[in-house]
Write a structure and sequence with these properties.
Blueprint (H helix, E strand, L loop, with lengths): L3 H54 L6 H18 L4 E5 L9 E4 L5 H9 L4 E6 L17 E3 L4 H16 L3 E4 L18 H9 L3 E6 L2 H4 L15 E5 L13 H17 L2
Parallel strand pairs: 1-7, 2-5, 2-6, 3-4, 3-5
Antiparallel strand pairs: 6-7
Length: 268
């Protein structure tokens, strides 16, 4: 039990700490804005330079693997140009394709760094809103798969396309949370789609945890969101097999993947 004197002391200390925290936030705000501006210039400037090569490579599906290699080279450049080098802890080897990559979604950096984590050819499943992004939308008009969760018919078409992709021996990467939570690094509940696909197609799931992206780059339009350079870390977990599983095992599989991805986030 706290004494009256201790309560009085705490009431004096906590508001002071809050004021210092607010003061520091406003002190560093100009540096965050400058880094966001630098980020936008590097990202979109390099994309403008590469737009024509990407346009040519994305014109025909048979060139998609070369487009993937160019995206990997671009991602490697971005991690250093944006001052966010990635350190990877590999706890298990990637299986033979196809497989489904599931990772937490805490920042737009996740998309960039996925290409630095996974060297084997894969396609992204992303939210339908990516089609509205200038320049960047070229990747989701043909090569990758945009999911319109607000429309059941369109969502079903996207998952049929995903199933066909796995049948062709191509891996998929997606964020089972569906979007970036407002309370990162805590995760939102996972949606069932990835786990239903994995069970129906009997492909393993590779869980990946991005540890630091939420600290390094928040929502770009939010004035006070985080934005700074720094070392990022990723954990590649051992693949989780789905052979012999049925849809009755879907919830257990989903929860296992969730716990696996969450474990490094909870570590002190």
């Amino acid at each position: 039990m706290l004494t009256d004197a201790q309560r009085s002391e705490r009431s004096r200390v906590i508001p002071g700490e809050e004021r210092r925290s607010v003061a520091l936030k406003w002190l560093f705000l100009p540096f965050r804005w400058l880094y966001k501006l630098y980020f936008a210039l590097v990202f979109f400037g390099s994309l403008v330079v590469l737009y024509i090569p990407f346009r040519i490579l994305l014109f025909r599906p048979r060139r998609y693997q070369r487009a993937f290699r160019l995206k990997r080279a671009w991602a490697f450049f971005l991690q250093w140009a944006l001052l966010i080098p990635l350190r990877i802890e590999r706890r298990g080897r990637l299986p033979e394709a196809p497989y489904i990559i599931c990772c937490n979604h805490s920042s737009y950096l996740d998309i960039i760094q996925m290409y630095n984590v996974v060297p084997q050819y894969f396609l992204f499943m992303g939210k339908y809103e990516l089609l509205k992004w200038p320049l960047f939308n070229i990747f989701f008009k043909g090569m990758n798969i945009a999911v319109n969760r607000g429309n059941r018919v369109e969502a079903a078409k996207a998952f049929r396309k995903a199933a066909d992709t796995l049948d062709r021996g191509v891996s998929l990467a997606l964020f089972p949370e569906g979007t970036i939570p407002a309370f990162t690094p805590r995760m939102k509940p996972f949606k069932d789609g990835a786990f239903r696909l994995a069970i129906e197609k009997h492909v393993p799931i590779v869980p990946i945890t991005f540890l630091d992206h939420w600290r390094l780059f928040g929502e770009p339009p939010e004035l006070q969101s985080r934005a700074r350079p720094g070392v990022a870390h990723a954990v590649v977990h051992p693949p989780i097999p789905t052979e012999g599983l049925t849809l009755d095992d879907l919830v257990a599989l989903r929860d296992r993947v969730y716990r696996t991805i969450e474990e490094p986030l909870l570590a002190p």
